Amino acid sequence: MLKKIIASALLLSLITIAIVQAVDNEPNSQEETDSLGGLKIGAKAPNFSLKTLDGKQVELADYKGKKVMLNFWATWCPPCKKEMPDMELYTKQAGDDVIVLAVNIDPENDVQSFVKENGITFTIPLDSNSAKNPVNEQYKVLSIPTTYFIDKKGDIRHKVISAMQLKDMERYMNSMQ
Question: For the whole prediction, is pTM greater than 0.70?
Answer without folding.
Answer: yes
